[in-house]
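Standup notes
- HV: blocked on the assembly model, inputs below
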Amino acid sequence: MNVLVLNCGSSSIKYQLLEMGENPEVRAKGLVERIGLKMGCLAHKNNRNDRYETETEVTNHTVGIKLVLAALTNKDYGVIESLDEIKAVGHRVAHGGEYFTESVLINDDVIDKIKDCCDLAPLHNPAHLLGMYAMQEVLPSVPQVAVFDTSFHQSMPASSYMYPLPYSLYEQYKIRRYGFHGTSHRFVAEKACDILGWDIKDKKIITCHLGNGASITAIKYGDSVDTSMGFTPVEGVMMGTRTGDLDLGALLFIMEKEKMSVSDANSFINKKCGTAGVSEISSDMRDLELADANGDERAKLTLDMYAHRVKKYIGSYAAVMNGVDLIIMTGGIGENSCDTRKRVLSDMNYLGVEFDAVKNTDLRGQDDTISTSDSKVKVMTITTDEELVIALDTVKLVFG
Ligand code: ADP
């Protein structure tokens, strides 16, 4: 059975067509970009490694979706003969506010609630809605599912999700911590427990999703009880171009000195800071590791800061849960950067973590354990797959 997974942005549509079954397989994937601009484009690839790229005007999301469906059914580089073979569509949705604690089948009520959350994710939710409307128009009889970045974290207690702000601001604007990357945190924790033969309901787990965006989650007995991203994805650990935690006073000071507007400041904390800002080299971990190996002092400082900030979150989440059984590293950096894993996880024996430096170096992009066999706390790297989670949730909701 084929499931189409869509991640619609304001000017782009990322897609994957997955064949679901015992061993789900990605049959095709691609990206439509520059929707609404003079010239748009589509890049498509199938599982036979055929590629197709085209430049054409993509006036809106419906045109973009039609382009995707045409590529999927093309007789040369497509993977299905007819659109009837698409049995369901899963949408990644950035923000479900306080409405959604899990993935849901899309209906009018769900669409109204996603609309209601547009204020909380002004760049993302309106675009997801455009994708849903476009699918309803093009394939009206195919069921659609919404999978939210935020829903897994709805289990956080109020003591974790409230900010020390006047309570009325929570009541009036719903300003609170929501957290993101929920599909990834949930997926890697469940996958690790499957591999270990553990019941997630008995365990305390810290998941570190370290990619361009990064967040860390404390999962106690299967529920997210705290996570590092907050009202927006800027809070938490240091990221490629986002600050992570920062003294608000420092931001106000910078705004005044640099005469920044609110919108300048928003772009500054999201795009100009993090590892790119400190290093003035790159937001990409590989570039920083290379520069560090060549003796660049600023790259070293950046990498030390990065690891220090991740380490602090792990320590605080062990404190929050009164212990930890398993620490998971995932995301592009968590899965691939042995250097970051070493910086973060060495010298954590106070917590019962005995890091295995040899296993750590041997392993790259695999699901495996990188703590010693007698380590009280297990440490694993687990490859994440957010599209697969969306497809699995979609199948579960549509076909039971
Ligand atoms: P996104 O948040 O955009 O999905 P990813 O999860 O793909 O990001 O992670 C991107 C990050 O992973 C980049 O900083 C990149 O340098 C890092 N990365 C990927 N491969 C490696 C590697 N082999 N060694 C170190 N870092 C890596």
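- HV (later): unblocked. The pocket of adenosine-5'-diphosphate is lined by residues 211-213, 240, 284-286, 289, 331-333, 336-337 (CB under 6 Å). The chain has two domains: 2-148, 197-386.
- Next: hand off to the docking folks.
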